[in-house]
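Session log. Operator J.P. requested a structure for one protein chain; no other inputs attached. Running the standard single-chain path with token output.
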Amino acid sequence: MTYQSPIAYATRGTPARSLRSVEYDLIAQVTQRLRSAWAKRTTDFPALAAALADNQQLWSTLALDVAQSDNGLPAALRAQLFYLYEFTAKHSRAVLDGSASAEVLTDINMAMLRGLRGDGGGR
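Structure written below.
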């Protein structure tokens, strides 16, 4: 038996995660960090700025994905998601300058999570 054999056997039992599951977990983590940072904004503004940057990176990645010609989502949904990317970028700047709330951004992310779960129509 080689050194790598136990690792190979150990990973076989680990179920493969779907991309949708990974995407869901990532959005949930970013949203939780954003909520937490927003709640502490008066005492830890750098954490809010970092959480906004993480959220913007998430939306930039989503926008890049939906802009690809081989993306399988319907064109109308792709356009809506790209619009949300643009909105989050603009709104994030407003949050940073103190003229807007981050709650709108977390609401958008929560809507994405509901959509990924398959219950996008309800709250």
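Operator note: The chain has one domain: 18-117.
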